Amino acid sequence: MELTVLNNDAGAEAGGCSSSGCGSSGDQLSHLPDDIREKVHNHPCYSEEAHHHYARMHVAVAPACNIQCHYCNRKYDCANESRPGVVSELLSPDQAVRKVLAVAANIPQMTVLGIAGPGDPLANPERTFETFRQLTEKAPDIKLCVSTNGLALPAQVEELCKHNIDHVTITINTVDPEIGAKIYPWVFWNNRRIKGVKGAKILIEQQQKGLEMLTERGILVKVNSVMIPGVNDKHLEEVSKVVKEKGAFLHNVMPLIAEAEHGTFYGVMGQRGPTHDELQDLQDKCSGDMNMMRHCRQCRADAVGLLGEDRGDEFTMDKIEEMEIDYEAAMVKRKEIHLEIEANRKAQAAKSGEAFVALASLGTKKKELRPVLMAVATTGGGLINQHFGHASEFLIYEASPTDVRFISHRKVDLYCSGGDTCGDAETALQKNIRTLEGCEVVLCSKIGYEPWDMLEEAGIQPNGEHAMEPIEDAIAAVYKEMADAGQLDKPRQTAEAAQATA
Amino acid sequence: MALSIVEGCVNCWACAPVCPSDAIFEATPHFMIDAKKCTECEGDYANPQCASICPIETVILDAAGDPLNPPGSLTGIPPETMAAAMAEIQAR
Ligand code: SF4
Ligand code: SF4
Ligand code: SF4
């Protein structure tokens, strides 16, 4: 059992706060009523802090879809919930249940099972609900959630309630049919294809109705929106307002990812996605209205594991067929490990805030300190514990005189996996460094000479001094050092700042 | 009278569950319609269900071999205005 992260004594000794948002205004769940907080406490997709400790998985049992989105071509998984361009192995409900039990028995941190396509789970109600029914019975310690485009949602709410599903994600890109027609060319409704504004209007009505019905019944609703520049970017603030009024507890704005090679309408037509800055700007604007989720990584739909790690290869159907699973015994073990995680989290939370006292005192001395973006390589547990070259994604934080705030995840292509894939190392590495644009520091456990030099050249300071330390403490410490060295009085100079915005 | 599925089908599964005649089955390299079972949805629905939900143009043909979803029908943009639409989108 791979519990290295959780049992890491170094982390515990280093102490302090490793939870995103603690001691800072970034604790996005703090405004929620207690019963909802309780529900999301261990949910890696909803609680920013929990996702350092717990994992979710998806199973692909629901292939069909009942609408058309311009960022989807159906050869890949539903782009509303997973990263575009990804294909999951389609499973029957029985296979899916077997897989979930196998993963849960081997990765005790797995607490949440989601069905999110490919396709729309509620356009495949038999397959979706058969999976949920079996899991409710066989694995009562796993939370269930479902993601939908919303078209069939009102019709399925009663059925959803039966299966005791307490989390639903609806992708809502707009509340305006005119805008909707630019995103959804048609929907399949009442046995017809309904095109354009009329179709979009039906979809929007069903989404809003479904949202209301769920919140009336006490089921948590998260809303996803895909930010599409020139289409709904200005409008998403309004969407945020509307869905909050109707009771959505989290809003997650994701960037459109449209590549020509995905063969989607947007990809082929050259519709661009938002820049990091545009996305962050919108997220900031929306967070005034409601709770924003910033840590969504648009997971691979069938990814398995914590944070950036994907252990999906260990759980392919042929391997699962051979596994013996005693889920009763696994549940006992899971319970123990969850208690251990909770104790750990409590301890970390108790020590939080120390670093921020230091920051606050800084603030009074120098009011005009500028905020700094820093990238972190981590495999979970809230620690800086990953080699730069092994990071498949970076967590981006913003440090300011008042707090350390989690901003987003940025995915990178691995430039080195230690094998014969190293041929293209240089260009891939350069690409990685570009994904860190806007950051001034990158924190990791270790880093090679070559990337070190290249990062410095790009104006990003590599830092391996805080290996195994809690993320937010380390960031606060680095920010303080920068402040003490007088680096924060002036705006970030040099050419690369200008380049970064180009 | 029957419809057929031809090359280009992306095996997205959308059509199979909506067919009232249970005529559509998974096959390689792509889904197929059992001509003996397909009723063209007559008596059940005004429009052939498979073609109404299929997200790919020109992969479902009628008995005469003409596509039910001709080019441009999926996006609502006729081929002749495609270039203009593209320019508009790229300016965003
Ligand atoms: S809802 Fe998902 S599967 Fe359906 S068209 Fe949209 S992105 Fe594709
Ligand atoms: S036309 Fe109707 S009956 Fe024939 S395959 Fe399509 S959905 Fe089935
Ligand atoms: S809906 Fe169209 S693309 Fe999808 S499986 Fe059926 S024929 Fe193929």
Produce the secondary structure layout.
The complex is a heterodimer of chains A (502) and B (92).
Chain A: H1 9-14, H2 34-40, E1 55-58, E2 67-68, H3 93-106, E3 110-115, H4 125-138, E4 143-148, H5 153-162, E5 167-171, H6 177-183, E6 186-189, E7 192-195, H7 196-216, E8 220-227, H8 236-245, E9 250-255, H9 265-269, H10 276-287, E10 304-305, H11 317-322, H12 327-350, H13 354-365, E11 372-376, E12 393-399, E13 404-411, H14 425-435, E14 441-443, H15 449-457, E15 461-463, H16 471-484, H17 495-501
Parallel strand pairs in A: 1-3, 3-4, 4-5, 5-8, 8-9, 11-14, 14-15
Antiparallel strand pairs in A: 1-10, 2-6, 6-7, 11-12, 12-13
Helix pairs in contact in A: 3-4, 3-12, 5-7, 6-7, 13-16
Chain B: E1 4-5, H1 15-18, E2 24-25, E3 32-33, H2 49-53, E4 60-61, H3 82-90
Antiparallel strand pairs in B: 1-4, 2-3
Bound molecules: iron/sulfur cluster (3 copies).
One iron/sulfur cluster (SF4) binds next to loops of chain B.
